[in-house]
Amino acid sequence: MSNLPDNVLDYLASSKTVTLATASEDGTPHASTFMYVNDGSDLYVWARTSSTTAGHLQHNSKVSFAIDEYVEDWNKAKGIQGDGQGAPVNGEGIAIAVRLFGDKFPTTSSGASTTNIAFFKISATHLVFIDNEGEKTEFGGDEFGMDFHREEVL
Q1: Distance CA 139, CA 25 (A)
Q2: What does the longest C-alpha to C-alpha distance in the chain come to?
Q3: 3-state secondary structure of 126
Q4: Which of the chain's termini has less CB crowding within 10 Å, N or C?
Q5: Tens of pLDDT along 34-67?
Q6: What is the mean pLDDT of residues 91-118?
Q7: ∠ CA 129-89-42 to the nearest 5 degrees?
Q8: Strands 17-23, 62-68: parallel, antiparallel or unpaired by DSSP?
Q9: What pTM value is reported for the model?
Q10: CA quadruple 22, 66, 19, 121: dihedral positive or negative?
Q11: How many whole angstroms separate alpha carbon 124 and alpha carbon 154?
Q12: What secondary structure, in 3-state letters, does the chain show?
């Protein structure tokens, strides 16, 4: 059972992509966008075994990620920023990931071979939920941009 607020779980369930930042052993950063599924605060992604992301996660499990979408009205902006640990999924975990992907993305081929891909579980250690809806934030007259309503949820 997740200890995240329902509005955060709803946002995770309705969003489709996550931008995942990884780093090599020497600290070279890399960001890629993936389709994802979640089980509470745990995210699952898949990547080609030869990809930079898969290589990074084999040697450095630390990740950061963002889930968001652009909206014209910044008072309706929502998103998640997070940190966590990424690890390959094996055995029964692969069946769980495939089931979750099939539920969220019905067009995926659940019976197709997963030979050339790896599934990764991102266990969130820190989550910030951004939700400006209802905040009526105004642009500052003497400052560029605006402040976003942020709530630490994990």
Answers
A1: 41
A2: 57
A3: strand
A4: N
A5: 999 999 999 999 999 999 999 999 999 999 999 9
A6: 84
A7: 15
A8: antiparallel
A9: 0.90
A10: positive
A11: 8
A12: CCCCCHHHHHHHHHCCEEEEEEECCCCCEEEEEEECEEECCEEEEEEECCCHHHHHHHHCCEEEEEEECCCCCHHHCEEEEEEEEEEECCCHHHHHHHHHHHHHCCCCCCCCCCCCEEEEEEEEEEEEEEECCCCCCCCCCCCCCCCCCEEECC
Q: What is the pLDDT of residue 134?
A: 72
Structure tokens at 20: 């995942």
89 token code pair: 């999924």
Q: Quick one: pLDDT at residue 84?
A: 98
Number of Cβ within 10 Å of residue 128's Cβ equals: 17
Q: Residue for token digits 């509005």?
A: 7
Mean pLDDT throughout 83-98? 95
> Which tokens in the block code for residue 119?
């599934």
Answer whether residue 140 shows pLDDT above 70: no
